[in-house]
Amino acid sequence: MQKNQRIILYLLVLIAGAAWVALSANTTSATNKTSAPQAGFSAPDFTLKTPGGEEYTLSELKGNAVLVNLWATWCPPCRAEMPAIEKMYQEYKDQGFVVLAVDMTYQDDPANIAPFIKKYNLTFPILLEETGDVGAAYQLRSLPSSYFINRAGIIQEVVIGGPMSEALLRTRIEQILK
What we know:
Structural class: alpha/beta
CATH superfamily: Glutaredoxin
Number of strands: 7
Number of domains: 1
Number of helices: 5
Mean pLDDT: 90
């Protein structure tokens, strides 16, 4: 192959590569703050029911600071952090703090939920996630997973794993209450 032919071939390959990059580029704006399970983005919305049939929709709680805690009764760190979450809920609920404890019912034994609530004297809403849709929306990888959501519905902090201490909870709750 002659030198001119190689140059032309290289240029064609370069042009084809540039065209491929341009055509396959993601054109959505990086500043688009749509729902995503990470800090700085709107919390993915969901509607779930309590064991008693009461319905909660996350987006209807705007104006409140919300902790969405994904958990299961069989999860040791989940069990360990529940008393601290209940204590913080009691301390901050009158300031507009709401806890939505979402039991991953599709991974749990529903018969264990009521005894769990009673054992830990939980007074915040326990929601049943029976389909896996909320787990998928929040890209659940580990239990517990906690999402601290400010009054505007924006996730301020994500804590994967646990148990969370009272000090960590207090700090995060006071941030989302501002």
